[in-house]
Write a structure and sequence with these properties.
Elements: E1 5-10, H1 14-30, E2 33-34, E3 43-48, H2 53-69, E4 74-79, H3 80-84, H4 86-90, E5 95-100, E6 134-138, E7 140-141, H5 152-155, E8 160-161, H6 164-176, E9 181-185, E10 193-194, E11 197-198, H7 199-209, E12 214-217, H8 227-231, E13 241-243, H9 251-257, H10 263-276, E14 281-288, H11 295-308, E15 312-317, H12 335-358, E16 364-373, E17 376-380, E18 386-389, E19 399-408, E20 411-415
Parallel strand pairs: 1-2, 1-3, 3-4, 4-5, 6-9, 9-12, 13-14, 14-15, 18-20
Antiparallel strand pairs: 7-8, 10-11, 16-17, 16-19, 17-18, 19-20
Helix pairs in contact: 6-7, 11-12
Length: 417
């Protein structure tokens, strides 16, 4: 029997990316062959997201496209959408197996034996190829905050933190595989708590016990940031990049969302971060059109974001998620108004991101170079500025400084000295 070829796809958050990366490692160790395209695959596994109706639609579309492109491939849906509405995904033509988050550990047990490795073919790679530059590592899962708009507590039921020793072993394993940057991720990593060790203690151990070149955190809640935690950024290996969830800059909306901070609390945390790390990138998520959001509340949120000067803002229209408190709230905002507000927020977000990048022009900064496309290399600074440059050298996975010369596309153009 020829070896089983598997193609993997991921939708959604960095936690999903981390779980797909871990699954890829397990598949290769078990003897399966990973391929880059469903066209070459015997099995196609999609790790789904369900945080918005758009994520649901993308998952359905990807599965249908996979079946059209390769009707012989077995399709498997896993993840959050698979946890929430397994019957909906099971009804898509070609989908043979649906596995929710609670059963993700059983994926390999549900696959046919890997067989003998298949002969090489174009577009195929037999080895592990995930996380070669930036590797995502899960340290925590689950959430019990039950913000009124959020489906996550309903699809990631089990709240648990990975033992520190296992996290450290995972970081060392990523380093041994060639990763120069490791991103610690989870549903709510600021809530990490295992055997009396919190996030601060975990980071101390990772920095002390591993040779990681760069360590980045995926996302934090404002109330999880403390002066003690920020002291760790004296170690230059910790990337000065803080993704702080905001969702709204209006206090009345935050209360309806059941967030655990006010806009003033958020401002204090931003000041605390920038006081410790002035060059830090602060990125965030914002929801436009939450139920009952008035024009005035939206303007409060818009002005707050503009004044804060975020390095990047992910803007989402409110998405009604059945089973959440907000889904039953009165005064649902129309799609038309949501689109208008999203567009206005996106314009401001673009200006804010541009202002942040311009601050660093003419500076020379280390960049972790990731890939080359049409003769141009791209990579990221520690504070998450995307940099493009030309070089005749192979820069893949190299940490090489470059002068940030000019604004270019969604980042800056770099010049090597």
């Amino acid at each position: 029997m020829n070896g089983i070829r598997i193609a993997l796809d991921t939708l959604g958050c960095k936690l999903n990316q981390a779980e797909t990366e871990s699954l890829a490692r397990e598949l290769v160790e078990a003897g399966y062959t990973l391929v880059k395209s469903v066209d070459e695959a015997d099995l196609y596994i999609l790790n789904t997201c369900t945080v918005t109706h758009i994520a649901d639609r993308k998952a359905r579309n990807l599965l249908r496209q996979a079946h059209r492109r390769n009707g012989a491939a077995r399709l498997i849906a896993i993840g959050c959408y698979a946890e929430r509405l397994p019957q909906e995904l099971a009804g898509i033509e070609g989908v043979e197996l649906v596995i929710g988050n609670d059963q993700k550990a059983t994926v390999l047990a549900n696959l046919p034996a890997p067989g003998c490795p298949a002969p090489s073919s174009p577009g195929e790679y037999h080895g592990y190829d995930y996380g070669r530059n930036r590797s995502f590592l899960k340290i925590q899962d689950g959430c019990r905050n039950f913000c009124s708009y959020c489906i996550v507590p309903l699809v990631r039921h089990k709240v648990e933190s990975v033992p520190a020793a296992q996290v450290i072993a995972g970081v060392k394993d990523r380093i041994a595989s060639g990763a120069r940057e490791v991103v610690l991720t989870g549903t709510e990593i600021g809530a990490y708590d295992r055997d009396g060790i919190g996030l601060t203690g975990l980071l101390k151990r990772v920095l002390a016990e591993t040779g990681v070149t760069r360590l980045r955190l995926s996302s934090l809640q404002p109330q999880e940031v403390s002066a003690e935690l920020l002291e760790l950024w004296e170690d230059s290996r910790l990337c000065p990049h803080f993704h702080l969830s905001l969702q709204s800059g209006s206090d009345s909306v935050l209360r309806r969302m059941k967030r655990r901070y006010t806009s003033a609390d958020y401002q204090q945390v931003v000041a605390l971060i920038l006081g410790k790390s002035p060059d830090a990138a602060i990125t965030t998520d914002v929801i436009a059109g939450f139920p009952g959001e008035t024009d005035g509340e939206f303007e409060e949120s818009h002005d707050f974001c503009r004044q804060t000067g975020f390095a990047r803002i992910h803007v989402f229209p409110y998405s009604r998620r059945p089973g959440t408190e907000a889904a039953a709230m009165p005064d649902q905002v129309s799609d038309k108004v949501k689109r208008e507000r999203v567009n206005k927020m996106l314009v401001m977000a673009g200006e804010s991101a541009l202002n942040f990048r311009q601050r660093f022009l003419d500076q020379t900064m280390p960049v972790l170079w990731e890939q080359k496309s049409k003769g141009v290399w791209s990579g990221y600074t520690a504070n998450y500025i995307k940099v493009y440059a030309r070089s005749g050298q192979n820069l893949t996975n190299q940490l090489v400084p470059v002068k940030l010369d000019s604004i270019y596309r969604d980042g800056v153009w770099g010049k090597f000295s």
